[in-house]
Amino acid sequence: MASILFEGLGKNYGETEVIKNLSFSVNDGEFMVFVGPSGCGKSTVLRMIAGLETISAGQLSIGDRVVNDVHPKDRDIAMVFQSYALYPHMNVYDNIAFGLKIRKLPEDDIRQRVKAAAELLGLDQLLERKPKALSGGQRQRVALGRAIVRNPSVFLFDEPLSNLDAELRVQMRAEISKLQRRLNTTTVYVTHDQVEAMTMGHRIAVMRPISGHNPLDTNLMQCGTPMDLYDRPDNIFVAHFIGTPNMNILPAMLSDDGTSIHLFDGQMPVSDEFRQAALAMRGRKVMLGIRPEHIGAAHEVDWPLTQTVQGKVEMLEPLGHEAILHFKVADHILVGRLHSHGRLPAIGDTVSMQLKCDAMHLFDPVTEQRLR
Amino acid sequence: MADMKTNRHILLHAVLVCFTVLALYPVFWVLALSFSGQQSVGLIDLPNDPSFFERFRAILPVPAHWSVSNFTEVWTEQSFGRWLWNSVIISLMTTVLGVFLACTAAYAFSRFRFPGRDTGMLMFLVSQMFPGTLMLIPLFIIIVKQLELGNTYIGLVIVYATTAIPFCVWMLKGYFDTIPYDIEESAIIDGASRLTIFWRIILPLAKPAIAITALFSFMTAWNEFILASVFMESEANYTAPVGLRFFVGGFSSQWGYFAAGSVIVSLPVVVLFLQLQKYLISGLTAGSVK
C-alpha cells in the first residue's frame, strides 16, 4: 500500500517539453485514472512512475520514498501494458510466475501464489496454454495475473482495454474495478476513453498536451471525482472532454449590470453560482457551456427557468432511449437531446429548443478558466 | 474447357520436369559415380563404333556395376575421415562463435542507441559487397603472419566467423526489431536484468532467426575452399573441401573418391536443413534476406 506524490514533475526529450509542473497526489488505495487526448503525456507520466522513463524535473515519491533514481524492479509496482506484453514462449503459469522466479521465491510459495491468482481470475484451467492459444480477454487476465501475483503496492495500467472488442471491454472494465476494490491496492489507470475514466476511477486527472494551445502552465487540467469533473469542470478543456455528447461551448455576452447573459437573440439570467463572478466581468464576453441533456424540446422538459432558441436541424442520431439532435443557430451547431419515442423532426426542419438556465457553466474566454 | 485446362497442366508439368532433370542431372551423376566403384569420370566404356542405344546408355547416370568400394576406400585408405573431422570441428566452432557474437551484437544494434550505431550497421553491409577472395591477402597477413595462427583450427574459425557475422547481425537485428519492446519493459518491471531478458526472453523468441544464422555460419565454414586451402598447410589439417580437391588435383584423377567424398560432405548439410526446416520457414517469412 502506498500513496504517490508528484512534486513539480517534468519530462523533456531534448528541447521538447512533454510534461511540465505536474503536482498532485494519488492517495493510498485509490483508483486514479489519467485521461486525455493522445499526446497529452498520460502514458509518459505512468511510465515515469514505473521507472521506464527518466524524470527530467521535480520529484516523485511512492509511499514515503523518493523514487526518482530507483530502478523499476525496486519500486514495488506492477504494470499492465496495452499490448499485454505476455511472454509468447511461456505458458500461462510461467508467464504469471516469471516475476516471482526472477525474485527467487521458494518453488512452493510460487506455486501457491500463482494458483491463488489464477483462481481469482478464472485462469486455473488454462495454466498450460501458451498466450497464442488464448482469447483477447484471457490474455488480458493473464496480464492482470502477472501483476497481482507479486502483490505490489501500486498497480499501473496503460490503456489495458483498448485492444478488446466493445462487449469484452465493458466486462473487463467491471472486473478490473472489482479486483481493485477487493485488493485495495493504489492504482493508476491510463485511458483516452472518458467512459472508462468516469466508470472506473475514484478520481480522475484530466491531462492536456503542454505544446500547442494550453493556457495553463502544466499538463494537469483538473483532478477530482468523476462527478466533480462533470458538474463543475474547472476549465473549457475539461468541460469539453468529459461527457458524451460533448458540452456545447458558446460565446455569450454579460449584460452591463452582470445579472443576465446575452445569448443569440435572447437574454438569460445568470445562475446563482456565477452571480459574484459575473458582476466582476460585467459587460464583457464570456464562454457559456451547457450540456446536451440541458437542451430539450419545450413539450418534453419541465424546467423552471429556460431560454428558447430556434434552429435548423442538421443531424439526428436516434439511440433508442433518446435521440441526439444537432441543430444550427446563427453560425453555431448546438447539440441537444430529445425523447426518441415522440415525433422526431426531420433534417432541415426548424426546431424550437429550451436551454436550462441554471445548468450553465461560465468560463473566461482568455484564460478558459471557470468563473468564480 | 476441361481439356484445355488438362493440356496446360501437362505442358506446365513437362516444362517443370525438364528443369528438374536439368538441375538434378549433375547430382545424379555424382551419386552414380560414387557408387560405381571406379575412378574415371565416365560411367561406361564406349566401343569404337557405338550404336545409338550405347550412346544413350552412356549419358544415363547409372553405373555399369554397383559398388560401395569408393566409400569404404575413401574412409579407410585415404585420410578423408580425418579431414571430415577437421571440418566438423571448425564448422561447429564457427557456428558457436559466430552465432554468439552475432546475437549479442544484433541485440545491441537493435535496442541501444550509441554513437556509431548507424555507421556500424553500414560497415557490416559494405563488408558484404566485397568477394571473400579479395580479402585473402590481408587475412593471410593478419592471421598467418601477425597472429601466427596459420595451419590451426582457431585461425580458420576466426576468419570464417568474421565473414559470417555481418550477415548474421543484419538478419538477427531485423528479427529482434520485430520483438515488441513492451515485452522487455514488462520483464524489467518483473525484476529481470538485461542479461536475464536477453537469455530468457529474447533468445527463445528469436529461435527461428538464430536457426537460420546458425545454418548460415555452419555452411560458410563447411563449404569454404580457398581460405582453407591457403591457411592449412599440412595435409593432416585439411578440411573436407580441401581434401576433396586432393583427389583430383595435380597428378591424380580419382573421380570415384571425389564423388564419394562429395556425397559424404553433403550429408550433414542435408540433415541440418531437414532438422531446421520448420524454423527456416518461419524464419524466412520473418524478414530474412537470403
Compose a concise summary of this entry.
The complex is a heterodimer of chains A (372) and B (290). Chain A is built from nine helices and 20 strands.
Feature tags:
heterodimer; A: 372 residues; alpha+beta; Rossmann fold; OB fold (Dihydrolipoamide Acetyltransferase, E2P); 2 domains; 5-stranded antiparallel β-sheet; 9 helices; 20 strands; 24% helix; B: 290 residues; mainly alpha; MetI-like fold; 13 helices; 74% helix; 0% strand; globular
What would your notes on this structure say?
The complex is a heterodimer of chains A (372) and B (290). Chain A folds into two domains: 4-241, Rossmann fold (3-Layer(aba) Sandwich), CATH 3.40.50.300; 248-363, OB fold (Dihydrolipoamide Acetyltransferase, E2P) (Beta Barrel), CATH 2.40.50. Helix content of chain A is 24%, strand content 33%. Chain A has helices at 42-50, 92-102, 107-120, 136-148, 166-183, 194-200, 226-231, 236-241, 275-280; strands at 4-13, 16-26, 31-35, 57-62, 65-66, 77-80, 154-158, 186-191, 203-207, 220-224, 248-254, 260-263, 266-269, 285-290, 295-297, 306-318, 322-329, 332-339, 350-356, 361-363. Residues 285-290 of chain B have low confidence and may be disordered. In chain B, α1 crosses α13 and α3 crosses α13. Chain B folds into two domains: 2-67, no CATH class; 78-285, Orthogonal Bundle (MetI-like fold), CATH 1.10.3720.10. Chain B is an all-alpha fold and 290 residues long. The A-B interface holds A 50-52, 72-73, 77-79, 81-83, 85-89, 98-99, 102-103, 146, 150 and B 180, 182-183, 185-192, 196, 201, 204-205.
